[in-house]
Amino acid sequence: MNQNLEPEAIWPGLEEGVPKPIMPYSPAVKAGGWVFIAGQLASDFKTGLPPEVKPKKSDSETGLELQTRFIFNNIAKTIEATGCDMRTDTVKIWEWYVSNHPNDNEFGEGNNWHGIDLGPYIKAREEFFNKPSPPRSGSGISELMWQDTELELEVICFNDDNKSVTFDLSEDIDSSHGKQATALRRGDWVFLGNQSSADRKGESLSLEQQTNYVLEKLSKTAEIAGSSLQQTVKAEVFIGNPDDFEKMDQVWSQWFPNNAPARVVVPRVGMEAQGSRIEVALTLLANDAMLTKSTIETSEAPLPLGHEPQAVKVGNFLFLSTQMAFDSHGKIADGLVRNPAAPWYGSPGKAQMRYMMHNINAICEAAGTSVENIVRRACFHSHLQWFAESIEEWASYFP
Q1: Are both 8-291 and 292-399 of the same fold?
Q2: CATH T-level fold of 8-291
Q3: Which end of the chain, N or C, is less packed with Cβ atoms under 10 Å?
């Protein structure tokens, strides 16, 4: 199959019934055999929640189930417009659930459970995928961009001649929650869904012990799928309390002493099991892959916060580590927050996005590309009050 290496934005027509985003992003981008589907909500982007996702008193379906079905229907139409089939070509799902838990006190106590009953979501999701469904990363967050939406979903598909092969954990380890594949291989690539220490919830494990156990599980899973931790290209790490970062990073460096993968660490998210303090998902190359990975470093951008490179390059794809408005010492860069003596001056969201994009472009240029070729972003805000000004700055790079 001929694959266009240039990013190509895909916009499903309104006749397909997919609501048109009002913010500056493409619903889907194709590049190099990958298809990146932007996060979708159960909103019509006009009035808020459409009538079909509001439960009726006589209806046994919950709002979460109705919203899940609405979103996956729209994602399926978007994917179809790219030439793929959601049921057979999806390799990874990201799920973001709205929950009031954990609150600040719970985070401080190490209680990171989001407390959401995922049964209605899983019931609706299984209608759209072959069993087992693709690997997933699911986390609880405090709010989404549209009022009363309970869920945001994002997927990646492959547009190639390969077939997906799924794997589960070995029999001596309990499978993760949700009836999904623990691992999926597609061509040279392997995707591992979130793993936690939930199967050891009867034990009181420290953050270091949980991190070690999670990486041990991922190592075994990678081996089952024909890969290894040394082949990890990108890691997604979810923690509750930001203070856990340093302890996690110490264990991480023991598992990845050399050629560490690109890594994004997302703090203050809700976990799917009581007692969990860390969850990790990985993207890897298979051991017999034709592709190889290389580390990208440049002095034109700040040093990473922890044991991670600025980026990892594989073929025509570049995977960046966490980008925040910090300097090489892990401190917020000068001039990027408001002066406490003048709290109404300045636009921190715009200034911090500009700072990050400058650094991202420097890393991209070191790898032989530029920000104009970005195909996917995941952006997290400490508060959504900063969204409008940050997205305005972001959009200026993609005229």
Answers
A1: yes
A2: 60s Ribosomal Protein L30; Chain: A; (3.30.1330)
A3: C
- Beta-strand runs (E) in 299-387: 311-314, 317-320
Closest CA to 356 of 308, 314, 310, 388: 310
pTM exceeding 0.70: yes
The CATH number assigned to the domain with range 292-399 reads 3.30.1330.40
Decide if 244 contacts 203 (C-beta within 8 A). no
CA distance 186 to 263: 21
Annotated domain spans of the chain: 8-291, 292-399
Question: Is residue 352 predicted with pLDDT exceeding 70?
Answer: yes
Rounded to the nearest 10 degrees, the angle between the axes of helix 348-366 and helix 387-395 is: 40
Instruction: Kindly state the DSSP code that residue 174 receives in the 8-state scheme.
Output: P
172 burial level (CB within 10 Å; 0-12, 13-18, 19+): exposed
